[in-house]
Specification:
By secondary structure, the chain is mainly alpha-helical. 45% of the residues lie in helices and 5% in strands. The chain contains 15 helices and six strands. A three-stranded mixed beta sheet has the order 1-3-2, covered by helices on one side. Strands 4-6-5 form a three-stranded mixed beta sheet. Strand 5 (339-342) and strand 6 form a beta hairpin. Helix 1 (62-85) packs parallel to helix 3 and helix 12 crosses helix 13 (390-405). The longest helix has 24 residues, at 62-85. The two termini are 26 Å apart.
Length: 468
């Protein structure tokens, strides 16, 4: 996580990638592991600590779920493209599930042989075709994340078809520097978010819905997309970059909240991508993770300094955030998780064993996010704000995001390592701990999607957006 200061390097986003008529627009991000979907992730930041959702659409095969998804996507865009973007929708001409395990399977559109599609999905503008691995990729997504995993992947690929129909292909050929791969992938993630919102709204309306999408399925869709994040250390300028988990889910949430028009308007000028290189060989060797005995003092020390200044700037002089302590526990703190704010004495209490287990599952910055959220409650109390109630919990998550944003490109001191933001995403999707208040209560209406939104509000808007 924490790394030494490095010189800032500006990388020109001048890419030679061309979405030509002979190539697929999206060859797909890194697929989920095929060996054992239930095994712990080997790369930090995978939100995999929550069991797969209960089986949905019983009696429906994965192929049937894919067909229902394609039908829903064609139907959605027939209405949404003219209504939101003023363009007519032409149904995607070729829908091609590929049986990669069949040696006699014919070559799919835009690929030499069926086996080339293993673990992949893409849209090919030359054939106006959405193509996917029907033997491994979609069945694994269905097993791990329910139908929502199938929906989000196919919705992303249909997003590339939207780009073709709205002139993005031509714009990219004319000015590739303004349309790098990662921007086009963010646009497609955003379009997928708009589709998810449509399905959520249709489900909430109570009518017959072939693909029910409630809060549980919505979070499952986010978890599925997390598995397709870029490998650690990939730069945004890489011609194969699709985005880290934070950037990809941010794009999904933007489409969900604001609709297709916002997706179509995305540019490099209004979108920051947070992927960075490793700061040192030592940081790379440990995959960006600090040992717990270094993590806790480093994070708490920086958080104390930041919150001291924040509280003082708000007009409260003399408060100093406390050092974290492993004991004694706080009896009135309620279920706050591995780190708790103790309102009785203003302390921050860490359960080092539980933090260690969390770090094994999700990486060091998952624990860092919880530590900072508890200091946020301490700062609220010091500033005369309440540390209890739903608003206090939302503010704590928001302030954790605001603290984190300054570490992306720090002016000095330490900064984020590749994967840290993905680890924050993991704990926010999987657990409500960062949003608990001083007595362990949390808004039951908030799920992973909402927690990520609170975190982004602070990340993008700073502490002033968090009520402190």
């Amino acid at each position: 996580m924490l790394r030494a200061p490095r010189a800032t390097t500006t990388v020109a986003l001048v890419l030679s990638l061309v979405i030509a008529t002979l190539a697929a627009a999206c060859v797909g991000p890194t697929p989920p592991p095929t060996a054992d979907p239930s095994a712990p992730p080997s790369t930090a930041g995978v939100a995999a600590t929550v069991p797969p959702p209960d089986p949905a659409l019983p009696g429906r095969s994965t192929d049937e779920v894919a067909r229902l998804t394609v039908d829903a996507l064609q139907s959605y865009w027939r209405a949404a493209l003219p209504a939101d973007l003023g363009r007519p929708w032409r149904d995607v001409a070729t829908i091609a599930p590929v049986h990669v395990d069949d040696p006699a399977a014919p070559a799919p559109p835009c690929a030499a042989k069926a086996a080339d599609l293993r673990g992949n999905a893409f849209y090919c503008p030359a054939a106006d075709a959405v193509v996917w691995d029907a033997d491994e990729l979609l069945p694994q997504l269905r097993d791990r994340f329910g139908p929502a995993g199938v929906v989000v992947v196919l919705a992303h690929e249909f997003g590339h078809a939207v780009q073709t129909r709205t002139g993005v292909d031509e714009a990219q050929r004319a000015d590739p520097a303004a349309h790098p791969t990662i921007l086009l992938e963010a646009m497609s993630d955003c379009y997928a978010g708009a589709v998810i919102r449509h399905l959520v709204d249709a489900t909430a309306a109570g009518g017959p819905v072939d693909l029910p999408m409630r809060a549980t399925e919505r979070d499952a869709a986010l978890r599925a997309l997390v598995t397709f994040r870029d490998p650690l250390g990939t730069l945004a300028a890489d011609t194969t970059a699709h985005g880290n988990a934070f950037d990809r889910l941010s794009a999904v949430e933007d489409g969900y909240d604001t609709g297709p028009a916002a997706c179509a308007g995305m540019t490099l000028a209004d979108r920051e991508f947070t992927q960075r290189r490793f700061g040192s060989a030592a940081d790379r060797a440990r995959n960006g993770d600090l040992p717990l005995d270094r993590l806790v003092p480093a994070v708490s020390g920086d958080a104390r300094t930041w919150f001291d200044g924040l509280v003082a700037a708000g007009g409260t002089a003399g408060w100093k955030a406390p050092d974290p302590r492993p004991a004694p526990p706080c009896p009135d703190a309620g279920p706050q998780g591995p780190v708790a704010y103790c309102a009785a004495d203003g302390g921050v209490v860490t359960d080092l064993a539980a933090l260690g287990e969390l770090q094994k599952r999700s990486g060091d910055f998952a624990g860092a996010t919880l530590i900072v959220s508890r200091y946020a409650l301490a700062a609220r109390a010091a500033a005369g704000r309440s540390a209890t109630g739903y608003d206090a919990g939302r503010s704590a998550v928001c302030l954790a995001g605001a603290w984190t944003a300054r570490l992306v490109d720090p002016a000095g001191g330490f900064g984020l390592s590749p994967g840290d933001l993905d680890e924050a995403v993991a704990v926010l999707l999987d657990e409500d701990w960062a949003e608990t208040d001083a007595v362990g209560t949390v808004d039951p209406a908030d799920n992973g999607f909402e927690r990520l939104g609170h975190y982004r509000r602070g990340f993008d808007g700073g502490p002033g957006a968090c009520g402190l």
